[in-house]
Amino acid sequence: MDQVPVTVLTGYLGAGKTTLLNRVLTEQHGKKYAVIVNEFGELGIDNDLVVDAEEEVFEMNNGCICCTVRGDLIRIIEGLMKRKGRFDAILIETTGLADPAPVAQTFFVDDDVRSRTRLDSIITVVDAKNFLQRLEDSHEAAEQVAFADIVLLNKVDLVSAEEVARVEARIRAMNPMARLHKTDHCAMPVSELLDRGAFDLDRILEIEPNFLGEDDHQHDDAITSVSLRAAHPLDAGKFNVWISDLLRLRGVDILRCKGILDLKGSPNRYVFQGVHMLMDATVGKPWQQNETRESKFVLIGRDLDETELRAGFESCRAL
User: Fold this and answer.
1) What is the set of domains in the chain, with CATH numbers?
2) pTM value?
3) Residue range 66-118, pLDDT digits in tens
4) Strand 150-154 and strand 117-127: pairing?
């Protein structure tokens, strides 16, 4: 039986995984992919951030793919195998808090999955601006690089050449075997990333001898997510003031924020993304006449005050 290749896209919160996924889906390569997106919060945002493509996107929310929702991953893959022939490969975008080891384990410890799929590679996207700080406060960031077959050192346009060199040296010290590419907005030919046969189980067993054994993965309990939604339009000015003040004052603790917003008077979605104090907003696709317009916003960080965040978001309501 031909095994379907699986590529895992990992990397810490805000590194650029969805940007990379969208590049894969829009490049002219003649292949179709089944896409699985995992999010840490209970409210799905990433599915709305994935470009309109023929591929069907499967969401797994409110849990890390390497912990509580691994059973969901196995069920989705088993379901996909019944539809074999409609796609050429599987792409999995993990939450930024995922340790890739338990994700990779899935393709070896479950007999049905192992017989019908093969793990082609683990691609880790690294945020050149924030990576060294992430190594100080997140073991997941280190695990994501250590397990990578391919590393995209992304956002090199945001830092100096000297800083890029420091980050690259740190990555190569952690994982000298990985292929490393320096990118801006994950601009890379897809042919250099997918279907490379890059995953090496022997190398992984050298890093983690108990890789195929029991999983004792744990997360930092201080990191939580707050999911906000509003059925009424928001005022653009009020929202910009609120989020700017919030990130200026609490940006160190807010690892990631993202949202699809319904702004009063706008026929299009407003797509917001933030990493610490950095934020970016773009005009998204138009709202359709028959769809329900609502705003969805997720924040992931340390010691978040949900009551305060809900009140701030509510204050952005348009009159």
Assistant:
1) 4-207 (3.40.50.300), 223-314 (3.30.1220.10)
2) 0.71
3) 555 567 778 888 888 877 667 888 898 888 887 887 788 888 877 888 888 89
4) parallel
